[in-house]
Amino acid sequence: MTGKPVSESCDTLIRNGYLLTMDAERTVYSCGAVAINDKTIIAVGRDAELSTRFRPRRLFDAKGAVIHPGFIDCHYHANIHLIRGIAPDDPKTTEPLAFSEWTNQLEAEDEYIQTQVVGLEMLRHGYTFFLEPGTVYEPDAAAAAVESVGVRAGLADPYLWDVSDAGNSRPSKTARIPNDSERAFKVLGGQLARNKDPYGLVRGHVAIYGEGSQSEPLMRAAKECADAAGVTFTMHHNFTPEQAERDDARLSGGSSSMVYFAQRGLLGPNCLFVHMNVIRDDEIPVILDSAMSLVWHPGNAMYYGINSDKKSRIPELIDRGCNVVFGVDVAKVWTFGGLEYIGYLAARQDKHYIPSTRLLEMRTTHAARALGLSEMIGSIEVGKRADIAIRSNREPETLPGINPVQELLLTGHSTLASTVFVNGKLVLLNGQSTQLDQEAVLASARAMARRVLSRAGYVPRVSWPVIN
């Protein structure tokens, strides 16, 4: 008997990294390690302690790089991902191709391919979950694509709307699913069956399109469905001043719509309202009192110049403790990893300050709370799913490494992840997918975009002469 302790076995040990746990105390290990068994984190701590304690079947040396929980995006339209470069960089026009003209041409294979590209792009930026707000026609195709990449996603029933004359043109322009009240109520909640598997990569939530396309009965039915299932209820709201005024007049007879929603019992902690570029004074107390979450897209608001006359109230709400998170929405002139930087600068323009630590919370713990998944994801803690990103530290913008949080979210926000685990499975290694032939997916995506454009009758063109 030597008295030497017997090592515990584990599937994976990630060691020797600057570990941002995002636990309740926001513990940081300057040289930390994480032990994983199957899909679950079983130990977190100092590298020296865990390296002695565990005998892993697979060992990953982070070589001093930042280790953080997988980032979470709370609002992304996967089936218009590849419209970027086709949708104009001039926000004053929808020419040459509007979103509805693109989506009207989509087939299940097109949504599958685009969602694969979304997943691959997410992983490269250290993201492991995105919430799709009920705008893919074929959720099964999107779910299959998500699983093929190995990321997580939340899906909802597609295009739930029952009003087409209240300022939102999408119901009248979406040929495949126009305004149909009977259908909306019939399919509501259909995606919640995905939640039967607690370890599944794809989950269901409740979403209506909102933004002038919903009646109060549909909104109530959606909120009650989400309440009964214990899931998030999300919709677009208050995108522009014009739409906010129309919804005020239509829904509440002229008072602020959010106040009316609160009076009617339509707000609560499981509500996740998207954009909210227009927030009136009397709406701030009801937002805070409801404990709801807001999805902020500072890039979209700046792109359309929405807050040029009236400043955004979201930085103020952040200061006051509202659970605000990010959603990339559509990759018009940005993509995953860009909004934190934009949000920081947008807040500073109005003399607000969002520290880099809060920006990190908005992408991890606060996002998990908004999705009702705080017990599962959002931090690196014992018992949670092993969704973990290891950043590359081989780029100059990661230097000097004195304040890794600020460097990760601001000065080095373009730095890519090198290794990512989702559900304890290695899905990205050295910047490449371990699940797919990445080059084949990219080739399929290029061909898919051209097929969709051909169906729409769109001929690609640029401002300068191109010589073939």
Quick structural summary:
By secondary structure, the protein is α/β, with parallel strands linked by helices. It has helices at residues 47-53, 99-103, 108-124, 139-149, 170-173, 181-187, 216-229, 241-252, 257-263, 283-290, 298-303, 314-319, 339-349, 356-363, 365-370, 404-411, 438-456; strands at 8-20, 28-37, 40-46, 54-61, 66-69, 71-73, 127-131, 152-155, 202-204, 206-210, 233-237, 271-275, 293-296, 323-326, 388-391, 417-422, 425-429, 432-433.
Summarize the topology.
Blueprint: E1 8-20, E2 28-37, E3 40-46, H1 47-53, E4 54-61, E5 66-69, E6 71-73, H2 99-103, H3 108-124, E7 127-131, H4 139-149, E8 152-155, H5 170-173, H6 181-187, E9 202-204, E10 206-210, H7 216-229, E11 233-237, H8 241-252, H9 257-263, E12 271-275, H10 283-290, E13 293-296, H11 298-303, H12 314-319, E14 323-326, H13 339-349, H14 356-363, H15 365-370, E15 388-391, H16 404-411, E16 417-422, E17 425-429, E18 432-433, H17 438-456
Helix pairs in contact: 3-4, 3-17, 9-10, 14-16
